[in-house]
Fold:
Amino acid sequence: TMYTTLEPCCHQGQTGPCTEAIINAGITRVVIALADPDPLVAGKGIERLRAAGIEVDVGVGAARVERQLRPYLHHRRTGRPLVVLKLAATLDGFTAAPDRSSKWITGPEARSDSHRLRAESDALLVGAGTIRADDPALTVRDFAPIGVNGDEIQPLRVVLGSAPADARAQPLIELSGELDDVLVDLAGRGVLQLMVEGGAHVAGAFHREGLIDRYVIYLAPALFGGDDARPLFSGPGAPTIGDIWRGEIIDVRQLGSDVRIEMRPRAN
Structure:
């Protein structure tokens, strides 16, 4: 019996069809967690195995695999990356002081967790304003995966708009236009998960367009105590209490003195 997370492919890619390798190996039973939503597969692999007389069971461990392969499955089902918005704020909802200083609102445990989140992402996106104001390196520390040549694998760095030529984050991909088109472009580059770390303008734009799949917010036990600091989002918000966005909390944990909240949009 062979166990596999995804339905075996039945087409010629960089390697031969997985289904033919299974058939040629003489395997008589295959247990598959999930059918592959990729249009090149999409049930055809299962059909090929069954046509060859192989017993195929589908759905064993499906929920766990759905969680593990969420970015890939989302990419194949929607044609765009899974978008994760990362924010860090005080309890009164501000991300930086009026002078834009923000290092550091959260403690080392929260910052380390955000680097783990970066390492899980294929690309990091910020706005040109963040590049000009903060000049972030946009790199992964401590958690960067290692490639076959021994080098660290860093996420693709994406800026909305034009960045200064001497920006610390290099190389940068500069994109502009409708956000939907930006996501389609990145999906075509093989980006399965995109982490958005832009300022309030970029965060607000993605939020209003309904393009965020996961919100990860780090809250520090601190207060600016006024109304002139920089908010989580900028731009027009909900006009009435009945119009406010409400999400579904899927995880809450304490990291040092901070709290990490993960949310997703409520299902319609």
Notes: The chain has a mean pLDDT of 86. The chain is about 25% helix and 25% strand. The domain at 79-265 is CATH 3.40.430.10 (Dihydrofolate Reductase, subunit A).
